[in-house]
């Protein structure tokens, strides 16, 4: 049978206007439902309408129309009309349903078995692949204290001692590049990535062809800076050391004038002296310490002095340190290349003519020479108390000083290597040491710094070769030109200032780690102070007398200067010093004494102190590089600000602001830091935002203008 759908718009003329009323529509819907039910009866779809096929074959031009005409109607508004009945139509009915059901069942069973086998096989492959072939970039999110200890246990004092002695053999080189090449080759052999040179042509103030001299005019006696008469033959090592007993970037020339004792050169001392004497174009006898040298020289320059004889009073030194005849070097350079202040010394940079950075003639001298100039008695103790060197007020001494130096452009080389982080490769922890500058100081204390950073790189890369990586990038730097005013670190920092300002998280300083053997002295920025205290309690050496008060936020000498003062980067430094040096005036480390290898090995014969510094610094580096939340403490920053405002005449308004800052820091610690440190509550995007806040905290306390020598 065939049915044709007749649409409402194909009605015959003269049909009733009530044809589409509700009753007729309902009847049509019932009729359509019956037809569709009939079409859906079992086996109906197996019939083939032969008459329709034959009709299509006989009339090909009407095939399309006839194909449309046999479609079942679905519109509720259509009418079905029986067109014809073909008595000769042959219908065929095939009984294939049972066979198809069996085939479908077999096919489904095969698919299910195949999928199960493949699934089990995939699990086995994944298990053995994970077991035998660990990933080369294992996430360090599961890194714990045990892994830190595994890395640090590979650091051995004997390896540091061997590295130290190999480096000392290079100090006689006349070219800075030989030591730099040796360091680069060694770091590359350990597996450090992308080790590069960073070269800068800078203006250096070098020692003159002969040693400077000081003459006592009244007696006509000439002395070298170490107190030895000019007529005598110099002792072993002394001839070389005397050449490097000078103040870099001092004015050059000769000056004869009255010697005026200004003690430590603080503002009160100068006001008292100016009331008593005319200081114009006179020579000041100045003690090093208590205040930054550059600040004191600026005060002397304003007071009209023409020259300065600089020394360290023996009462300010440890009893074990016999430096009465030793000379030293100081730099009057606040930082960087003097010819390109504030911008890097790269090709095409404008060069300023600044051979000297002060109008004063400055000459460092030994304490033994001061004793001869002021005619001091042999005994400097009274009732067991050390008596400071002092020129009597009524005595007048006329002295003549001669300063001669040479200014040249030289190449300073930095060695920089990277260990790329896994999770936050755009966040950097900088680890800085310094190497010997061939035309600089004759000392060899730089070898301790370089040996320590190399030992940590070796231990770290052994773990990296097993598939581990830190979360954040660690940048290892060996700076050149440190003795001349941290020139290498300043130029590199100025060259990449925008990137470093945005990405540097912390700076770990390894500058001059062995200054004594009595006590471990730790210096940290306020935000890292709590972390350093924890490490001190856990890692104190048995030989060291560790105290909590040894963790301070005082100024750090060395190449960390640029990162603290210009970038506001939190900084940490560990060093062994003598207890007397810690208790006495600060800023004595501004003097560069030429320590020889034999002296360093006498202080630490088994290199256990070197090993302790390496492990302490290494653990701090690992924790900062791997903790999901930076281990910085906002509350310590607020407390440091509050404590620094307390004094003899505190500013009540500033103290009120500091109190509010402390309350905000406490709220920040409880509301933000606590959830972030809980893995169950940790949200990655919030942790990233929190780390950015912690990283930039100390940048908010940089001061635009400060007195010379002070931190910003």
TrEMBL record:
SUPFAM superfamilies: PA domain, Transferrin receptor-like dimerisation domain, Zn-dependent exopeptidases
Membrane topology listed for this record: Single-pass type II membrane protein
InterPro entries reported for this sequence: PA_dom_sf, Peptidase_M28, Peptidase_M28B, TFR-like_dimer_dom_sf
Peptidase M28 domain boundaries: 414-579
Annotated TM spans: 108-129
Stretches for region Disordered: 1-21, 60-95
Compartments, as annotated in UniProt: Membrane
Assigned GO CC terms: membrane
Entry keywords, A to Z: Membrane, Signal-anchor, Transmembrane, Transmembrane helix
Predominant subcellular localization, coarse grouping: membrane
Top-level taxon: Eukaryota
Pfam families from the UniProt entry: Peptidase_M28 (PF04389)
Family that this chain belongs to: Belongs to the peptidase M28 family. M28B subfamily.
Alphabetized PANTHER family for the sequence: INACTIVE N-ACETYLATED-ALPHA-LINKED ACIDIC DIPEPTIDASE-LIKE PROTEIN 2, N-ACETYLATED-ALPHA-LINKED ACIDIC DIPEPTIDASE
Protein name (database record): N-acetylated alpha-linked acidic dipeptidase like 2
Source species of the chain: Ailuropoda melanoleuca
